[in-house]
Amino acid sequence: MISFFKLYLLLRRNNKLSAKRSVMFEANQYGKLFGYIFLGFMAIYMIGIGTFLGWASAKSHEPAFILLLMPLFLILDFGSRFLAQQTPLMLVKPYLLMPFSRYRAIDCFLIDQLFSSSTLIYLTLFIPYFFINICGGTPFIAAVGMTLLLLMMVVVNSQWYLLVRTLVNQKVYYWILPALFYGCCILPFLLMSDKEIDKSVDHIMDFLCDYGFSWMSVLLWAGLLVLLFSLNRWLQMHFIYDEISKQEKTKLKHVSEFNLLNRFGQMGEYLKLEIKSTMRNKAIRGRFIQGICIIVMLSLLIAYTDIYDSPTMLNIWCLYCFVFFGAVNLIKVMGPEGNYIDLLMVYRENILTLLRAKYYFYSAIVLIPFLLLLPAIISGKFSLMMILAYIFITIGPEYCLLFHMAIWNRQTLPLNEKITGRNQMENKLQIFIELIVFFVPIILVSLLSALFGDVTAYTILTIIGLAFTLAMPIWMKAIYRRMMNHRYANLEGFHSSR
User: Rounded to whole angstroms, what are the CA distances from 495 to 18, 293, 408, 490, 491?
Assistant: First the structure.
């Protein structure tokens, strides 16, 4: 019987070989380079934060000070893991008939995620913090124990993320789980006055100083880790067998004709295809509903609450209201079409018409946050120029960049089955494009506002976005030509990943 450690090394090696055999391996090399650069910047940034917090805690002789900020770090960590870390469900599937326990394979993949780069990068925050505290008089052994305890908190948070991600992949309404948890944690502070918040923070700080780094705390976090690990272990196996043994059920449904789109000819037919794919196919419908719910929630939060009233936060979340839906769906453009890509290749410029239909469909989705933000525009909370700038930036340069992924995406996405592979970002270039889409416009508008003022900044963004929008036929045709130059490699990838 193979030992657990040898099995762990074997599965890890097979995992790396699987990545090398992927049809996206060549494109991933460029994405990995940008990923390493991003991790390097993150490490430098976190070292700076750890050093700053370390000086603050050393002066007050309170090494438990960082515990007061850990909830914020853990919330940010929970959200950031959705970008890169996936569930290990389908990794175990090929090993179900192997002569070793299926649960041992699950354990290997779960343990591998415990020590992922997303977890270990937090050492760049904790080590500088406690190094400065050691210089300030904290015993070395105590500092090491505190560092390990904080790392255990991050590991527990990774298991909490894995639990939520696994459930959300099955049913969209499981988003209620993290919403209730974080809502119960944050809501009391929103309802308190400033004096009550100050008193609560003082009480929490006193409690953390007494019990934050204690054996009671170690036992609590260790118990949570064991509980969440066991739940994830059971859930992974449950959903693996559920996916393998499920039976397809066919129901007769009313077929919508969408006759209104007939006047647009072939373009109208592809618009029908996009709409019907969203309505009929379970996986596509789930991503559509999830995206719509998030942009509606963001729009309502920034329009009718004062949570994000600072200029920077308003700019960030206003952009996200418009770009989020397209960013999370168009980053995998042509993935669902990989199921029937051969049919699209039959007639000349079929795919060009399809891409244009997709552009009009996703541009129409932008009207949803616009309508939700309209009362806030009328009341003066937002300027019309700001909203127009982000609308045209979204449907202009942002969509232009996202549609370029049609050249490089070569992995078929299932239409009805949930995507349960390890890495839904099958092309590492997708991560780099996502970072550009979400952060570059904010950096640009911040620089322009600092140099010329808000009105000029939004005017420049509107002009840039409008230029890209009007030039859509030109850059869409350029994307189509480059896609045709790579058509054989793309076809091979789509075929092999079905």
Answer: 17, 33, 15, 9, 6
The Cα–Cα gap between 147 and 64 comes to 11
Residue carrying the six token digits 């996200």: 320
133 in Cβ contact with 62 (< 8 Å): no
CA triple 157-438-187, angle to 5 deg: 45
Which residues lie below 8 Å from residue 366, measured CB to CB, with a gap of 6+?
Answer: 322, 326, 391, 394, 395
Task: Burial-class residue 367 by CB neighbours within 10 Å (0-12, 13-18, 19+).
Answer: exposed
SS3 of 127, please? helix
d(CA 68, CA 70): 6
pLDDT(475) > 90: yes
Cα–Cα distance measured from residue 135 to residue 133, given in angstroms and rounded to the nearest whole number:
5
Q: How many CB atoms lie within 10 A of CB 327?
A: 21
C-alpha span between 495 and 291 (Å, rounded): 28
pLDDT at 34: 64
**For the whole prediction, is pTM greater than 0.70?**
no
